[in-house]
Design a protein that fits this description.
single chain, about 100 residues
Length: about 100
């Protein structure tokens, strides 16, 4: 004959253990998915680096824009736009 008190305690402890293990593995799975998606974002990124523009290069860009009369100004578009649209940097080759 089973002791009803022991049966209830054992089933309660077993249920807590099963819930604890399942919560642990679900949490582990969620963390793994988040890390996987962030790794994919890093791998799919274009590899663009944050770059600062030196004051000398800014002066060269300003001089090149006024001399070549392209029709854009730094105040309108900014230096990053100019660097993106002119990757060969013609202001460095000009003397």
């Amino acid at each position: 004959m089973k002791n009803p008190l022991t049966f209830r305690i054992e089933s309660w402890v077993g249920a807590v253990l099963v819930l604890g293990f399942s919560a642990f593995f679900v949490g582990l799975f969620v963390v793994a998915l988040q890390n996987y998606s962030s790794d994919l974002d890093i791998l799919n990124s274009s590899g663009a680096k944050v770059r600062t523009i030196s004051p000398q290069e800014k002066a060269l860009i300003d001089k090149w824009l006024t001399k070549s009369d392209i029709g854009i100004s730094v105040q309108e578009v900014g230096y990053r736009y100019i660097l993106q649209n002119f990757p060969n940097r013609p202001w460095l080759t000009e003397k």
